[in-house]
Amino acid sequence: MATPNHVQISIPLPHADQNENKETDYSQRAQWLRAAVLGANDGLVSIASLMMGVGAFKEDAKAMIITGFAGMFAGACSMAIGEFVSVYSQLDIEIAQMKRDKRNNGLTSDENEEKEKLPNPFQAAMASALAFSLGAIMPLLAAAFISDYKVRVGVVVAVTTLALVAFGGVGAVLGRTKVVRSCGRVLVGGWMAMAITFGLTKLLGSSDFGI
């Protein structure tokens, strides 16, 4: 009895590498987004705490808002410069390593692809400054149109609280951690920063330093 011929056909999977690249790209994008969330959270907590500190010493809305804007400009510039220097140092290291690999191992690859993989200091600086500013503008907008001191402080705390919960949730999703725990840590940390700044500034303002 004749046995049927079994023909083995190998089917190529052209999308395997593409899927892997997509996962890698997603991971890189997630890292950038997580860094942006952390930068926005930094701007939010820093400026909200600064405004609370000024509010503890002076109830004037103009002084509180001007100080907040000054802090936002200074913080955004500081974040941009720090990120630029840091990423530029990383760029120099990676370029030097690529040159050593080519010289020692004789590796040849597409230079355009290699350049695309290298970090961009200007992009990192702009992203860092923008993220900080987006977080900082929230308490500033919340206080800009409220003249009553107690209401203004309460609104700043409320808006900052909601933003902290949102940032904590987004950071948890990007970092694949527990949302409730992440939100709790971010929220308690933000509250502590505002409370400590308010309390210490209040104590400093009530002390007699001959000013």
TrEMBL record:
Main localization category: membrane
InterPro entries: Ccc1_fam
Reactions catalysed according to its record: Fe(2+)(in) = Fe(2+)(out)
Region named Disordered: 1-25
Domain of life: Eukaryota
Lineage: Eukaryota, Viridiplantae, Streptophyta, Embryophyta, Tracheophyta
UniProt family annotation: Belongs to the CCC1 family.
Keywords assigned: Ion transport, Iron, Iron transport, Membrane, Transmembrane, Transmembrane helix, Transport, Vacuole
Pfam families assigned: VIT1
Keyword presence, Ion transport: yes
Function statement: Vacuolar Fe(2+) uptake transporter.
Protein name: Vacuolar iron transporter
Membrane-spanning residues: 32-57, 63-88, 124-147, 153-174, 186-205
Membrane disposition: Multi-pass membrane protein
Keyword Transcription: no
Subcellular location: Vacuole membrane
